[in-house]
């Protein structure tokens, strides 16, 4: 098998009367310029102290809701007490606290 031949062509010359602009010579930057370029001003933080406080409140609400949802133990293993299992605190209050904590988290993140 023979290799395909590659045809090399010259770049097109500029039209007569027109010149190609010269590329300026790059000078080496001075050490002071390099130091000034590398010492940028400190970046501003995205979240402020208030954001973190609101995030902490949201995390505490979520944790409180999870603790309330877990509830306590039955007083006796032989007795079934449906009021402890299906209490309004476990079914209503705890999920509302978790949702409120998530809303506070979203508020804290998107707040300007």
Main β-sheet description:
none
Radius of gyration: 35 Å
Give the ordered list of helices and strands. Answer: HHHH
Q: What best-fitting shape do the alpha-carbon axes yield?
A: elongated
Distance between the amino and carboxyl termini = 69 Å
Note down, in words, how this protein is organized:
The chain has a domain at 49-110. Helix content is 51%, strand content 0%. The protein contains four helices and no strands.
How do the strands and helices of this protein lay out in sequence?
Layout: H1 31-38, H2 49-70, H3 82-85, H4 88-110
Give a quick summary of the entry.
This protein is mostly helical and 112 residues long. The protein is built from four helices and no strands.
Describe this protein with a few key phrases.
mainly alpha; 51% helix; 4 helices; 112 residues; 0% strand; single chain
């Amino acid at each position: 098998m023979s290799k395909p031949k590659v045809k090399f062509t010259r770049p097109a010359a500029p039209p007569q009367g027109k010149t190609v602009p010269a590329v300026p010579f790059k000078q080496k930057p001075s050490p002071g310029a390099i130091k000034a370029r590398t010492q940028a001003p400190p970046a501003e933080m995205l979240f402020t102290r208030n954001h973190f406080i609101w995030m902490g409140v949201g995390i505490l609400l979520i944790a409180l809701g999870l603790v309330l949802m877990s509830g306590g133990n039955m007083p006796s293993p032989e007795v079934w007490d449906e009021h402890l299992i299906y209490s309004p605190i476990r079914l209503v209050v705890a999920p509302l606290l978790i949702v409120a904590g998530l809303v506070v988290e979203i508020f804290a993140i998107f707040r300007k």
